[in-house]
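Revision sheet: structure tokens.
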Amino acid sequence: MSVNPMAYEAQFFGFTPQTCMLRVYIAFQDYLFEMMLVVESVILKKLDGFPGCKISPSQIRKSTEKFLLFMKEHFDKLFSKMEEVLLQLVLSIPKNVILPEDKVHEQYPYSKEQFQALQDEISQLQQQYRAEASAGQALQAELEEQKAVQAELEKILQWFDGLENICREHGTSNFKESFAFLTQNSRKLQDVLKDVEEKSKKIKKHDQLL
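Predicted:
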């Protein structure tokens, strides 16, 4: 078998020429073995028609095997020559022939240096894309944070609107008066809370004395 990989031929045929020749070789070899078995069975049947024949089936088998070995040696020599001819003249693509899918390389040839420069440019563009994608993700995260802050500000504004409405209901119209009103009410609530706590302590002491 040829050691030449014949990769271009494999691209065209969809299989390597060596694989094709191997399958042909195996098919011929299987056919040769089958023919020897048929010949052997015919000889054995013919011998059955000669009474008193001293040739045994084992001798026939040995003779068949020797003949098969002789045929296989000659077949291998012939097949080697046939394989060489087929690989060179039938299953090979001439060096001046370009497959249709490779026409673009002929139209736009690139040297090794040009190809490397193109690879470097692609790598640089990929890095820029990753950087822009990362920046886009950061901007998206910042936008989400701004949305959350805006939502909190809207809640605060709503709270102030509600506070202003409450103050208006109690006769205060501006923010300063509203703040003073809230402060006054807050102090009243604190006084009430202290009074409740003191009364609670007195009740607990009274219960303990009882």
